[in-house]
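User: What would this chain look like folded?
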Amino acid sequence: MIVTAVSDNRPQLDHEELVRKLSAPDDAEVAGLDAWWRANNYLTVGQIYLQGNPLLREPLTPEHIKPRLLGHWGTSPGLSFVYAHVSRLIRTTGQQAIYLAGPGHGGPALVAAGYLEGTYSEVYPEVSRDEGGMLRLFRQFSSPGGIPSHVSVTTPGSIHEGGELGYVLVHAFGAVMDNPDLLAIAVVGDGEAETGPLEGSWKGVSFINPEHDGAVLPILHLNGAKIAGPTVLARKDPAEVRKLLEGHGYDVIEVEGDDLPGMHHRFAAVLAEAWGKIRAIQNAARGGDWDGTRPHWPLIVMRTPKGWTGPDKIDGITVTGTWRSHQVPLSGVRDNEDHLRELEKWLRSYRPDELFDATGAPIEQIRAEAPAGDLRMSASPHANGGLLTRDLDMPDFRDYAVEVKRPAEGRAESTRKLGELMRDIYTRNPERFRLFCPDETNSNRLGAVFEVSDRGFMERTTGDDVKISRDGRVMEVLSEHNCHGWLEGYNLTGRHGMFATYEAFAMVSASQTVQHGKWLQEAKDLPWRAKVPSLNVLLTSTAWRNDHNGFSHQGPGLIQVVLTQRGDVARVYLPPDANTLLSVADHCFRSRSYINLIVIDKQPQLQWLDMDQAIEHTANGAGIWEWAGTDDGGSDPDIVLACAGDVVTMETVAAAQILMRKLPKMKVRVVNVVNLMTLPRPKDHPHGMSETRFRELFTDNVDVVFAFHGYPGAIHQLVHGRPDADRFRVRGFIEQGTTTTPFDMTVRNRASRYHLVMDAINNAKRLPSGASELKAWCQAKLEKHERYVVEHLEDMPEVRDWSLGDWAEN
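Assistant: Here's the prediction, encoded as structure tokens.
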């Protein structure tokens, strides 16, 4: 028989014996489960309603009720019921587990669970396990200066923000990848099950390998209603729901009811069955008794009434089992004596005098329900992943350098060098690094990773498949939500990676980026939260070079989204070539608790800096490219040409060359920005450059023509508060796109070299003779371009093949 190890000094039982023990709790075990559950329900209701009299030492009065009743009751008793039983599973088997609550506002139930387990008081000593601490627990909930009503970053044991629905499964699947001993309990609310991200995330079972990954146990909690009406899956015929989930590949186990203690016995049996099937799958895979076919992982469908154990009716209207129990079932309690008495009756139905001792602490029977130490789900280090994080074993990124003897002499696909770097990171870190990409790894020139790893896939394969196997660890699925969410779960449990996608399609999962940024921001204020590996996002196939795909693929919006995040977590990098990309990537892979957004195209592009120059440039974040302009540094230039982004950098350098050749007496300074976050003032962002440094680059009063990869307003936002910020004239993407040539994209968005030259002439501090003629020349070039692309279906040779040493008079 396969023997399963357990923790502490418990005897080792074989797999079948453990399942039998779990399946049939005795009367004492059921009594303990029910006492813990009643205590949790009591604490949940208390958090929603009470600001005084936490243990009902006296009759409730209006003064004991919070002035604002906020929170959500309906899903909470189901969440705590599952939590109680999973804790028993952990105590019996020693299973490492984390708990992810998908229902949006089950916060009070999970806070109560951490409090009963003691973890909450360990991380927040002021919320002690006594009457005073319980009062503080109640008063802080959904209150100013307190905690939110969902399972937020402040909740010990959480890696999943319940405020925005749809991500519980993607986070759970990411958490167990390369985490073989972890079980992620993912409770899916039936309202959440209606969201697009959740509907797509059932497919996670097609990518989990039982040899080296942990397991996810989804528990679809069908309680029948959302905030104001029925849910789809709860109203479907149960047979249809079963077929739906079986079609995704799950082994569906169902349990239903609200009778007690019967429901305790039934749920204990199905949880034991599910765990037994998980262990059987893993034991077979890890013991060599597996044919490699995708396992049918178990999934539990649990049907209980919404608002279970709450008031059945209020004012003669049914509440429990309906949408009316979703938030605060009893309203106006301060002003309605009947409602006040109903609330007291509800609270006393849990018999708190049996659950808490004279000091207000949970009695021994309840404390004994908690697993030991780190096995408590609220204390699991997997849910505070920075505790488990190990630095990547990084190769020297300098070894992948592109040789650059002179700027713009050669071209290279910059992201291909990043792929080579990640290939070797995979080799050095076989259990803590993954690339997540929506079916675009080769397209984005990152395919070198396939030299050391296949794409991971547990469904059947055919002879036509290339680099696809069950052992692969490059994660490709055509879902930005899955890729983004898997990486979040992977990061939050202490591992490293990158999410790479086409620039325009990053907006599909932009809300996830925002939510993760909020999580990181809140975590920074909690000293007990250890820093986790950064969320690294690579955007390529960018707006400026999606000329063949057209307007639908042309959108740099995620830059704007990330810029709205607080400076403590937001980083945006626009490396102009391969060597700067390598230097940026090395920094990002080593960093902690940031969102690092890197934007660079995959097409062959001019290479500007050798590796030493690239390292210095990325360290500074921005710098003057003396070789590109005519500024001698002795006095202020006549115009500053600035740029951020690979395509617009080429246009800026080309514009400077035109000015140098046509107006040699005009002093032109070229400034390249690789780290956008150097532009704000230091008080607005920790990467912001000093006033002195900003003046050295941009002067105090010379106009700046700024060519930017994204929307022009972003630069205005970043330089707000800088000296004479109105002097910045920004050219960028202005939603002008179509299926056209690469250079025509810059023309349509008025960011071409010719537009930049005309801007420079219009805004220069002084103009030498010949400026009017040069403007006319630029206009003629634009007219020539328009005729040429229509006739020849490609860009003019002088543009298409331009390099720094080229010059065409006509």
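Confidence is low (pLDDT under 50) at residues 1-11. If you want, I can go into more detail on any region.
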